[in-house]
Amino acid sequence: MTDTFLSGRTALVTGSTSGIGLAIACSLAAAGARVAINGLGDEAQIQAALDAVREAGGGEVRHFDANLLDPEAIAKMMADIDGWSPVDVLVNNAGIQHAVPLAEMPVGKWDAIIAINLSAAFHTMRLAMPGMAVRGFGRVVNIASVHGLVASKDKAPYVASKHGIVGLSKVAALEYATAGSRDSGGVTVNCICPGWVETPLIEPQIEARRDGGGREDGVRALLAEKQPSLRMTLPGEIGAIAAWLCRREAHNVTGASFPVDGGWTAQ
Ligand code: NAD
């Protein structure tokens, strides 16, 4: 029998119309949660995401269409979700990337990457966490990156945003450390820091390394640069780790950042 330890809880996963976010939304639904999904996409993509999460199990599923570039749209989304069912589990996952040298980075890309990868998490957390504290249970899982722990060239705004979310998560973990109890599960804030995960986000970086060969050659070259296991992580594997962090018995796991990187940051 499936362990539905999130039954009766509500989760919001930002950027869950694709990739890692969609897989996390499915894992939380499989654990019994009611799930608010968010993210861009056409009607068909959003419907496919809703169907996938519904099929995974759990309670009701709805899409909330806030563009995370806009703090007012984020505030409206959080109020709408609160009216539906207050957020117990908040996964800040939405993220974008643009890889070029610092001096060539378009200013608009810097602003957008900081807004979506970092500031959006500040806004959802500031609006969701007081309610979690009152109820004595809350989980914030921020999807950072190995680039929250180490740098790579050509990724100035991405690395800055991911280091920023690691720091933001530590502050929030400290501020909410005493909320709730061991029995209620407490309020925790953690980061997952993946290396390479097989999703659309990294396709341009695979493409850039094909060197006249096929996609598999691009993947091999990408892994060989930094990920010692030479294996990609699957989105569902990140979903399983995110779900584990939401268990009651993880009440004292807070302020931590978990690399899932095949040894990348051990080097
Ligand atoms: P993805 O491109 O498949 O999905 C990104 C999601 O974010 C989509 O649902 C998209 O609609 C949403 N999004 C983008 N801009 C948005 C906006 N303005 N408003 C609302 N939603 C928006 O990417 P992914 O690989 O699944 O990445 C998810 C997270 O994981 C990101 O934060 C990324 O930095 C992080 N990450 C990915 C990898 C990897 O190898 N794929 C590695 C480390 C960290």
TrEMBL record:
InterPro entries: KR_dom, NAD(P)-bd_dom_sf, Sc_DH/Rdtase_CS, SDR, SDR_fam. It comes from the Bacteria. Residues 9-153 form the Ketoreductase domain. SMART domains: PKS_KR. PROSITE patterns: ADH_SHORT (PS00061). One of its GO terms (biological process) is monocarboxylic acid metabolic process. NCBIfam families: PRK12429.1. Belongs to the short-chain dehydrogenases/reductases (SDR) family. This is SDR family oxidoreductase. It comes from Luteimonas granuli.
